[in-house]
UniProtKB/TrEMBL annotation, chain A:
The keyword Membrane applies. It is a multi-pass membrane protein. Residues 1-29, 93-122 are annotated as: Disordered. The keyword NAD does not apply. Pathway: Glycolipid biosynthesis; glycosylphosphatidylinositol-anchor biosynthesis. The lineage of its organism: Eukaryota, Fungi, Dikarya, Ascomycota, Pezizomycotina. Pfam families: PIG-F. InterPro entries: GPI_biosynthesis_protein_Pig-F. The chain crosses the membrane at residues 137-161, 167-187, 208-229, 235-256. Coiled coil: none annotated. It is found in: Endoplasmic reticulum membrane. Its main location: endoplasmic reticulum. This is GPI biosynthesis protein family Pig-F-domain-containing protein.
TrEMBL record, chain B:
Residues 434-847 form the GPI ethanolamine phosphate transferase 2 C-terminal domain. Pfam families: Phosphodiest (PF01663), PIGO_PIGG (PF19316). It is a multi-pass membrane protein. Belongs to the PIGG/PIGN/PIGO family. PIGG subfamily. Keywords: Endoplasmic reticulum, Glycoprotein, GPI-anchor biosynthesis, Membrane, Transferase, Transmembrane, Transmembrane helix. Pathway: Glycolipid biosynthesis; glycosylphosphatidylinositol-anchor biosynthesis. It comes from Aspergillus keveii. Ethanolamine phosphate transferase involved in glycosylphosphatidylinositol-anchor biosynthesis. Transfers ethanolamine phosphate to the GPI second mannose. CDD domains: GPI_EPT_2. The keyword Endoplasmic reticulum applies. This is GPI ethanolamine phosphate transferase 2. It is found in: Endoplasmic reticulum membrane.
Length: 280, 852
């Protein structure tokens, strides 16, 4: 059934969003860092995540609360390695993709200062890079836990998760989803209001970060499909299918977002005819 | 140019809509075949040779929805009955009641011994129908009547409709007022002592409804349940003691049974274990001689299978045998072998089984006229049930011949087991062969529906191509819906599909609004409240949707989980009635809002009509569901409210609403007619559902602020129609049809009026959205609006096609009568009543303007 009801978002992306990222936008898509490690790990990371899902699946079915809780440190570790190793932190795109984009981010901040300092001296060893990337990573981790998790939990409930029961599971599910989707977003974009308005309107240009985030949510949405079936299998219990869908969606979204024929394109949902409505 | 292109397309749409009812008619002809029955009464072939009867009289006590565990389990009120089981005076069974588990078909099975057709379900609802009577069929009642003996009936008046003129004394109670737990039963019980004292009857039938009503109202775990079981047990005690003490009741058989069970939510109609497992007990002090006392009570089991499981149709031949009657002609039952021991002579026992076998063989031959039962296949390995039956029959004949040769009691048990094997095999064959489909009609119906889809394809494709994203979403939903019809659990849980895809649609609306807002220059931005609605409009839509989703739990899997209407409101009546009053106040305010109709008089009229309508609902609740107003209304006021003549009052309300509607129509005020309709729909809804209309209005306001294109309005309207149908408590099960408002203002049974009111009561949400989407669309340009009818017709035709295809492909599926056929019936009402009569008539102007 799932295969028939594809989400409009996924389909619409290649079809209608033929306009490449508009140059007027000052928020270009995020590219994976150009280093050897970054390019390699950006491919290894989804594989690790998926094998983790497959490996721990049966214990999630047995005891979802304990397993999801104990998985969080591992997930945090993996995601921290991924964002620090493969993504440019907020306000440092230029460092990431060399001279692909001429426009320099205007947001001033301690990070940028630290960055220029390290650039100034020639002993930019890996250790220092890690050190100055750790601060934004930890900051965005805090924000992920404090803001993104409750927001996603709320969204889960809005999309049909139980409201009066299963609170812990909803929160754990939201935490996993937030680590997948919101953590890289916050790391790469900081708290830039305009970018977050774009995210709220789902109109970011496609890249690994936004693709992963959108994929997580769509995957979770599709993950609800098997729940009503009368097979009475233990894995049909909330939220196992939803979270599995989220993981799969994250991996797909992340890879598709980087693909050459999608990268930089936006979802375009403004309907024909809507533009010429007279607003009364 | 558009004009030219549109006209031929519209003729196609018109033709397609004509084809829809034709397709339904043709398909139904093949799907619900008329089953020929053998007419006349059975007689004994050799009356002098018949085995002696064990009992002269029968007391047949039906307790509606008496699920097996209500009698047999640890947590039961039937304490005396359980002591009878221990002593052996009561022989307990679980009687498998095949689907449809509603009263009338079940009574047919109990009395004729045949498997009722699915048509009986529809006739069960259209209660006045007389074609479903059993007056001319062979039943054990007719057999008793043929002996010029008297039958007495008290209880559910379904019996009186099934057997007109059969009973010498009777007092029927209608099962319509479901909220009555005591009166329906007291009306039966008051006759019991006097009837037990009389000599003149041979069969006394009692049918108690109270337990079923409790189930419908508050489920099997209700606090009323155990006291009601005690009450029923006390009647068993009364009857049993009379049987022990009264001389004229010495040879009386007492049967206690349920016609069907109930599921965990207290409803029935489907085929879950709870619904198909009623209790069945044969009670008489004489059974003690069988020496088969059984353990009782026993531990509750989840599958409700207590003691031995027999088929409900087995009641007929067993009663016939014990009472010395010929077995009714159309019976598919098998004599229950536990009672064979009541006869001590071997030839009597064989005679009984042989009579049963010959009678079943006759029906078997009638059903399979081309199958030859003569050949000897006792040595062959049987391939199917029919072969098994044939094989057992050959063996039995062989054994019988050998017995005749030896002229003695040899092979007694062997013959008995062989005959029983034949009987069970034939019963198996006949139950599954009960419905023969006419495949030609099925395929023809599918072809016509397919043609309708094809005719609609050009027009809808044009629309979908022009409006890509909403078009794609609609196409994906239609495909998903079509595929879903082939999975029984998705049919049962259809609401999940609409809830789920609506969240996706809300996401689409959110994104397109955000992007639209970004694209339009900020200078154009207007009223702040308006733009606020637009920023969080879709979010608010999702919030209200999430609340509606929990209003009524429906479907099968999660039906018993707590929800707002059945769990929250009964315990928070203040909140319920505050919300209900808000809903009425809101209707009043909307009626008078910006009205240019002469002001003061208009306001007064609106006020009077709204208040009168509200008071009607209050009086209705006081009589129908008193548990909803105990906190809200003081008891003396409640009794005063109960005195209100409801029918007259309802007519007054309807007249008031009609007046408002007429005024609205005269002055061409779309809002006013819409509000009058809302008031009518509110009147036709159950009280706990009334606050939903507040949420619906909020959703309409949001959608108005979003500036939807016409196609988006159509898609939204389609989704909302289905979502609200399920949010109001509807589902694809026959048991969820809500009849509580079907008789508002109707004095005598009038099938057309009751039918319309039933439809309005169950489809209140969808009807509201038909009207609301017209308001939404009215601001759009004319040529854009025309896409509405082709799109809706396309969706309906596709749904119809997929349901027909699913019913044809899965016609041998286990759930065909419990899941797919009810779905087909619901699709018929969606397509014919809701689509053709409401959706299209509402927008008839779109159609006429074009085709002319």
């Amino acid at each position: 059934m799932a295969s028939q009801s594809l989400a409009p978002a996924q389909q619409a992306a290649p079809n209608s969003a033929s306009t490449p990222s508009k140059p007027k936008s000052s928020h270009p898509p995020v590219s994976i860092l150009s280093s050897q490690f970054a390019r390699g790990y950006a491919l290894v990371h989804p594989a690790i995540l998926l094998s983790l899902v497959a490996y721990r699946f049966s214990s999630v079915v047995n005891d979802p609360v304990a397993e999801l809780l104990s998985d969080i440190p591992f997930l945090v570790g993996l995601q921290v390695v991924y964002v620090m190793g493969c993504l440019p932190p907020a306000g440092a795109e230029k460092d990431g993709n060399a001279s692909a984009d001429g426009t320099m981010r205007k947001t001033p901040g301690p990070k940028r200062r630290g960055h220029s300092a390290s650039k100034g001296s020639s002993w930019s060893t890996g250790l220092v890079t890690v050190a100055w990337k750790l601060t934004p990573a930890l900051l965005s981790l805090t924000l992920t836990m404090l803001l993104a998790t409750p927001t996603l939990a709320l969204l889960l409930v809005l999309f049909g998760a139980p409201l009066t029961t299963h609170h812990i599971l909803t929160f754990l599910c939201a935490a996993h989803m937030a680590l997948l989707s919101a953590f890289p977003l916050i790391y790469a974009h900081g708290v830039d209001g305009e970018i977050w308005r774009e995210i709220w309107g789902a109109s970011r240009p496609a890249d690994a970060v936004w693709g992963g985030a959108l994929g997580t949510c769509l995957g979770a949405w599709f993950g609800a499909v098997p729940i009503p079936l009368d097979w009475d299998r233990p894995w049909q219990a909330y939220p196992i299918t939803i979270l599995t869908g989220a993981y799969i969606g994250y991996v797909i979204g992340m890879l598709v977002g980087r693909a050459r024929w999608v990268f930089g394109k936006r979802l375009e949902f403004v309907p024909q005819g809507a533009r010429d409505i007279k607003v009364d | 140019m558009v004009r030219v292109a549109v006209i031929p397309a519209n003729w196609l749409v018109f033709a397609a809509n004509l084809l829809i009812p034709i397709a339904i008619l043709v398909f139904s002809l093949g799907f619900f075949p008329y089953k020929p029955l053998i007419s006349g009464l059975a007689t004994f072939e050799e009356p002098h040779n018949a085995p002696p009867k064990i009992f002269n009289k029968v007391i047949f006590m039906v307790v509606d929805a008496l699920r097996s565990d209500f009698v047999y389990s640890n947590n039961s009120g039937f304490l005396f009955t359980q002591s009878l089981i221990r002593s052996g005076a009561a022989v307990p069974f679980t009687a498998y009641a095949g689907s449809p588990t509603v009263t009338m078909p079940r009574l047919k099975a109990i009395t004729t011994g045949s498997v009722p057709s699915f048509l009986d379900v529809i006739l069960n609802i259209a209660e006045s129908d007389t074609s479903s009577t059993l007056a001319h069929q062979d039943t054990w009642l007719a057999q008793i009547k043929a002996k010029k003996e008297q039958l007495i009936m008290y209880g559910d008046d379904t019996w009186l409709k099934l057997f007109p003129g059969m009973f010498s004394r009777s007092d029927g109670t209608t099962s319509f007022f479901v909220s009555d737990f005591t009166e329906v039963d007291a009306n039966v019980t008051r006759h019991v002592p006097s009837e037990l004292g009389r000599h003149d009857w041979s069969a006394l039938i009692m049918h108690y409804l109270g337990l079923d009503h409790i189930g419908h109202k508050s489920g099997p775990q209700s606090s009323y349940m155990i006291p009601k079981q005690h009450e029923m047990d006390s009647i068993v005690t009364q009857v049993y003691q009379a049987m022990e003490q009264e001389a004229h009741l010495q040879t009386t058989l007492f049967v206690l049974c349920g016609d069907h069970g109930m599921n965990d939510a207290g409803n029935h109609g489907g085929s879950s274990a709870g619904e198909t497992s009623p209790a069945l007990l044969f009670i008489s002090p004489r059974f003690k001689s069988l020496g088969t006392g059984r353990q009782s009570p026993v531990d509750a089991s989840r599958d409700f299978q207590y003691y031995r499981v027999v088929d409900q149709t087995d009641i007929t031949p067993t009663l016939a045998g014990l009472l010395g009657l010929p077995i009714p002609l159309n019976s598919l039952g098998v004599f229950i072998p536990e009672f064979l021991d009541m006869w001590h002579i071997g030839s009597d026992r064989l005679h009984l089984l042989l009579e049963n076998s010959k009678q079943l063989l006759r029906t078997l031959k009638q059903t399979y006229p081309n199958y030859r039962f003569e050949g000897n296949t006792s040595h062959l390995k049987p391939q199917n049930s029919l072969g098994k039956a044939h094989c057992a029959w050959s063996q039995a004949r062989e054994l019988l011949e050998r017995r005749d040769e030896t002229n003695g009691s040899a092979h007694q048990t062997e013959i008995e087991t062989t005959l029983l094997r034949f009987l069970w095999a034939s019963q198996d064959v006949m139950s599954s062969a009960a419905s023969n489909y006419d495949l030609r009609y099925l395929y023809l119906g599918i072809c016509i529906a397919g043609l309708a889809v094809l005719l609609l394809l050009p027009a809808s494709y044009e629309v979908l191509r022009r409006y890509q994203q909403p078009g794609f979403f609609l196409a994906a939903s239609v495909c998903g819906y079509g595929a879903m019809m082939f999975a029984s659990s998705y049919v049962e849980e259809e609401q999940q599909f609409w809830y789920w895809s609506f969240t996706g649609w809300a996401f689409y609306l959110h994104v397109r609004t955000c992007q639209f807002r970004r694209d339009s220059s900020p200078a154009k931005s207007h009223k702040i409240s308006h733009s606020l609605l637009r920023i969080c409009g879709a979010a608010a839509l999702t919030v209200s949707h999430r609340i509606l989703r929990r209003w009524n739990q429906t479907g099968q899997k999660f039906a018993a989980e707590p929800d707002i209407a059945r769990t929250y409101f009964p315990n928070h009546q203040g909140t319920l009635w505050a919300l209900v009053m808000m809903a009425y106040a809101d209707i009043y305010l909307s009626l008078t809002h910006k009205s240019s109709v002469s002001s003061f008089l208009w306001c007064l009229t609106c006020l009077v009509v709204t208040v009168v309508a509200f008071m009607y609902k209050l009086a209705f609740a006081a009589t129908e569901s008193p548990e909803l107003i105990t906190e809200f209304v003081p008891s003396h006021m409640a009794t005063a409210l109960k005195g209100v003549p409801l029918i007259l009052y309802a007519r007054l309300v309807m007249f008031g609403i009609l007046l408002l509607w007429a005024i609205g129509a005269k002055f061409r005020r779309k809002r006013v007619t819409h509000e009058a309709l809302t008031l009518f729909l509110v009147t036709q809804s159950r009280v706990p559902n009334i606050p939903i209309f507040l949420a619906l209005r909020l959703q309409l306001r949001i959608l108005e602020s979003l500036n939807l294109t016409s196609v988006e309005v159509t898609v939204t309207s389609l989704f909302m129609q289905y979502v609200t149908f399920f949010a109001f408590g509807g589902s694809n099960a026959i048991s969820s049809i809500d009849l509580s408002n079907a008789y508002n203002g109707v004095g005598n049974y009038n099938i057309l009026l009751v039918g319309i009111l039933t439809y309005v009561g169950n489809w209140a949400g969808p009807i509201w959205w038909v009207s609301a989407s017209r308001l939404l669309r009215s601001r759009r340009p004319w040529d854009e609006r025309q896409s509405h009818i082709p799109l809706l017709s396309f969706c309906v035709a596709c749904a119809l096609l997929s349901v027909m295809a699913a019913c044809t492909v899965l016609r041998t599926h286990l759930f065909i009568w419990t899941v797919f056929s009810p779905k087909y019936l619901y699709t018929i009402s969606w397509a014919i009543i809701h689509h053709l009569a409401v959706n299209l008539l509402w927008d008839i102007d779109l159609f006429l303007a074009d085709t002319s």
